[in-house]
Amino acid sequence: MFGFALSRLVDHLRVSEEKRVMLKKILIGTGIVVLVSGFFFGRDLFSYVKTSMGYAHSAVVDAVPMEFQIERARGMIEDLLPEIRKNMLAIAKEEVEVERLEKQIAQARENLEVQKSHILRLKDDLAGGKVEFVYAGRKYTADEVKADLAARFERYQTSEATLADLEKIYRARVKSLEAARKKMDGMLAAKRQLEVEVENLQARLQMIQAAETTSAYQFDETRLGRARELVDELKSKLDVAEKLVSSEGTYTGEIPLDEPSREDIVEQVSAYFADQPEVSQVAGAE
Q: Does the predicted TM-score (pTM) go above 0.85?
């Protein structure tokens, strides 16, 4: 049913006949695979697929060279810089705003002190019981002064409430700024720590590679020993052969029947010098 529905869907597509047939086959084959897999695995099909993908992902990750992984870690650390700069800019802007807010609060406090002094002056004047007052060369009745005092006092209360709100905002922004600074310091410290750890990993990898290179040049002592044994054996065989050749003249393989002649040493000396002239004759001839 699934493959049939897909094939019906393809019929409505405006494609060439060959492409339509090929697409039908692909979709029908996919539908058959899904149906067969669903028949064998049932509800566990998704779990099997997910687990298989996990194994494949792990195999691919394990196959990646360590040098590439270390460079990838370096790249990820470097990718933190734009975010760090962005937060630094936000912190700098917030510091400017906090400073501006400090000045605004200081100015508001100063204005409140001035307003307070004016209000207290008017209050004291009205408390004296006068019916007419002169301010800046102009005359005012007691009712006018009372109305002005009421308006000033209302503005003072409003300004005082505004100042209280500004101080709350200031404290909140200072607290937020301090938290942002601490977070930035922590991020910078973590970045530096990661850089140190990556360099440590690089050094450890180089040590491992150096050890592997050294072990590749080690000789097989067993083979060397066998070669030495063979050389010693050949030397022994050659020594035996030399002794055998030198003894061939002595050992003929037959039993000697006659004893060797033993000449008298006196006869040998007399015979040797009998044929030579006397020393005096040789000297006279000279």
A: no
Mean pLDDT to the nearest integer, 186-213: 89
Tokens read off for 87: 């937060």
Q: Where are the beta strands (DSSP E) in the chain?
A: 132-135, 138-141
SS (H, E, C) 165-230: HHHHHHHHHHHHHHHHHHHHHHHHHHHHHHHHHHHHHHHHHHHHHHHHHHHHCCCCHHHHHHHHHH
Amino acid at 267: E
Instruction: Give CA–CA dist 52/62, Å, rounded.
Output: 15
Question: 33-37, 119-123, 260-264, 274-278 — which one is most confidently predicted on average?
Answer: 119-123
- 101/107 Cα distance (integer angstroms): 10
Diameter of the chain measured on Cα atoms = 188
Domain boundary assignment for the chain: 2-63, 77-216
